[in-house]
Amino acid sequence: HGAGGMICSSCSDTEFIRNNISFTSRWGVHVRNNIMYPDVTSTSSRVKIEYNRLTHIGLETDDMGAISTFSGNNDDALLPSQSSIRFNSVCGATRPATKGIYLDNCASGWDVSGNIVLHTGKMQIFIHSGSNNLISSNVFVSSNLASAKAGVTLNNALNCNTTSNKFVNNIVYVSNVPEAVVQVPPEAIGEWDRNLYYSPLVDLATPVYNQTALSNFSGLKHTAPKIPFHALFGGWGTWRNNGFDTSSRVALPPFRAPEEGDFCLKNISPELSA
Asked: Tens digits of per-residue pLDDT, 225-234?
């Protein structure tokens, strides 16, 4: 309750493990550096955020993440954190600008693996100008809220040399009509492949086109798909032809009962092992 569930500033070698956090006004778990302030130079490195369950997070705050990290505002912030966000469950951070996992202000060097993120207000994961982050083996399920923008978003809006981020072996389930499934500048990518995508609304590999322009991503003004796969490249085929998701697929993930809100995976099946 209050500002958030668990908040820590300049707390290296700290573990947040096996907690149940619910009904917070702001963050569920928030870890930050203080290197952006002139009189404080300590950082948060080698932090573990693992095996936590978060529900009904950010009930009074929009721009935040259920699990959130904050580094700084320039290249000085790009210190390798050697930290992890793994095996957490996030469900229900539904205010219009909330994110499930939010690597904020150049947060870099994080291992984000094995998490499940359901029903967030805007994005399932947002990497805000960070580098050398590994996003692997997660399940991201979008909400059906009108505020939802994109399942996976990475931008380079700050003075950071954003590069070498990896997004591999993830499941992205799109249950709304976002601006795009993926919004990420290609220069920020180290590897983006072996993922599984699906929407019950439309075949993401052959999106439905209309005359709506994407005006909120890099100033684009051209005609865009209703559900473009990527905000810059447009369709699935063009995205893959540029070298991304070449071994990924658009197919129904092996969830037990997604129509009933059960996004647990069945036993390992050909959909995941192929």
From this structure: 455 677 777 7
